[in-house]
Design brief:
The structure holds 2 protein chains of 2 kinds. Helices cover about 40% and strands about 20% of the residues of chain A. Chain A is an alpha/beta fold. Chain A has a 5-stranded mixed β-sheet with strand order 5-4-3-6-7. A two-stranded antiparallel sheet of chain A has the order 1-2. Classes of the chains: A alpha/beta, B mainly alpha. Chains A and B meet through α4 of A and α3 and α4 of B.
Chain lengths: ~180, ~160
C-alpha cells in the first residue's frame, strides 16, 4: 500500500514521457488546415513570362510541394516525387522557395522534373503566407481549393503510401 | 603548436555572440520599443528554442522583416501577432493563449501544488501518535494505573 502512490506517479510519468517520445517536436501543426490555400500570382520557374496561381489547379485534388535547389532533403524526396508523377495519380505543383531561377531550372534539368509547373517565389513571401518553415513541405489541396493536409520534411515512400496517397484517393472520391 | 592553436581559437571567440538583429529605422521610439518587444516574444520556427530576435535563421530574418513592416505601417502588436499566428499557429508565441486546449498547461502546476499539499496534509494527520487519541478519561486513568503496577513489579 505504501508503494502504491509512488508507483502510480511513476506509471503516469512513464506514460506521458512515452507519448512524448513518439511525437516529433519539430512538427508544427499548421493553422491553415481546412482553410483555402493562400492565393498568389507568381512567375513560373521554367518561364518568367508565364504565371502560376492556385486557380491553375482549382477543381482537382493536387499536391503542392515546396522545394529549392539549395535544399538537401529535397534531393532525398525527389525520386519519390518523380515516381509519383510517373504514376499519374495526382498532379504535383511546385513552389520554388527562395531560390535563383537558373539554379532551380538547372536542378530540375539534372534530377528530373516531377512538377506540372513550379511557381518562382524568390523572396519567400508566398512561402510565409503558406506557413512554410522548413523546406521541403508538401500540401494536399482538395477540389474546393482547401488545404487538407501538410507534410513537413521529405516525402518518403512510407509517408506517401500511408499518409498522402490514401488522403488523395479519399479527396478524389469527394464530390 | 598547441599554444598557437589556442590563440587561434581565442581569436574566433568574439564572433560567437554576434547579434542577429539588423539595424532598423523607426518613425518614433515607441514603434521601436514595440518592435523589439515583439521579436523577443515571438518564437523562431526553425531553431525552436530561440526567439525571432535571437535567431540567425533565414526565416527568422524574413519574419523580422514582416513584423517590422507591420509595425512601421502604424499597426499595433496584435496585428503583427495575428499575422504570424494565422500562418504558423500559436506555436510562434512563447506565451500560449488561454484556451480549452491549453487549460491543463496553465492550471496544471496549480493542480499539482494542491494535490501535493493534500497528500502531505493527509500523511501528517495520519501519522500523528494516537496513543492518547480516542481514549476516555477513565481509560486513561486505567492505563496510568497499569503502568504504575508494571513499574512496581519490575522493582520487586
Amino acid at each position: 500500500m505504501r508503494f502504491l502512490i509512488p508507483l502510480g506517479v511513476f506509471a503516469v510519468m512513464v506514460l506521458f514521457l512515452g507519448i512524448g517520445l513518439t511525437l516529433n517536436p519539430r512538427e508544427v501543426p499548421s493553422p491553415l488546415i481546412g482553410k483555402p490555400a493562400p492565393t498568389f500570382q507568381l512567375s513560373r520557374v521554367a518561364d518568367a513570362g508565364q504565371t502560376l496561381s492556385p486557380d491553375d489547379f482549382k477543381g482537382q485534388v493536387a499536391l503542392v510541394n515546396v522545394w529549392a535547389s539549395w535544399c538537401v532533403s529535397c534531393r532525398q524526396e525527389h525520386p519519390v516525387l518523380l515516381q509519383l508523377a510517373r504514376q499519374n495519380v495526382v498532379p504535383i505543383y511546385g513552389l520554388n522557395y527562395k531560390d535563383q531561377r537558373e539554379a532551380a531550372q538547372g536542378w530540375l534539368d539534372q534530377y528530373g522534373n516531377p512538377y506540372v509547373a513550379s511557381a518562382f517565389d524568390a523572396d519567400g513571401r508566398v512561402g510565409i503566407n503558406w506557413g512554410v518553415y522548413g523546406v521541403p513541405e508538401t500540401f494536399v489541396i482538395d477540389k474546393a481549393g482547401l488545404i487538407r493536409h501538410k507534410h513537413t520534411g521529405p516525402v518518403t515512400p512510407e509517408s506517401l503510401e500511408q499518409e498522402l496517397l490514401p488522403l488523395v484517393r479519399q479527396l478524389q472520391g469527394e464530390p | 603548436m598547441m599554444r598557437r592553436l589556442i590563440w587561434l581559437l581565442l581569436a574566433f571567440l568574439p564572433i560567437l555572440p554576434a547579434q542577429a538583429v539588423e539595424i532598423r529605422q523607426f518613425d518614433n521610439p515607441e514603434q521601436q520599443a514595440r518592435y523589439e518587444r515583439l521579436i523577443e516574444e515571438l518564437r523562431c520556427l526553425v531553431c525552436q528554442n530561440q526567439s525571432l530576435a535571437d535567431s540567425d535563421a533565414d526565416l527568422a530574418r524574413d519574419l523580422r522583416d514582416e513584423v517590422y513592416g507591420i509595425i512601421q505601417s502604424g499597426k499595433d502588436e496584435q496585428e503583427a501577432i495575428r499575422f504570424l499566428t494565422d500562418r504558423y499557429g500559436d506555436f510562434v508565441l512563447y506565451r500560449p493563449p488561454v484556451k480549452p486546449i491549453t487549460w491543463l498547461l496553465w492550471i496544471g502546476p496549480l493542480l499539482i501544488l494542491i494535490g501535493g499539499g493534500l497528500f502531505l496534509w493527509r500523511r501528517h494527520t495520519q501519522s500523528r501518535p494516537n496513543e492518547s487519541a480516542g481514549m476516555t478519561e477513565a481509560e486513561q486513568k486505567r492505563l496510568d494505573q497499569l503502568k504504575k503496577e508494571l513499574l512496581h513489579r519490575d522493582k520487586s
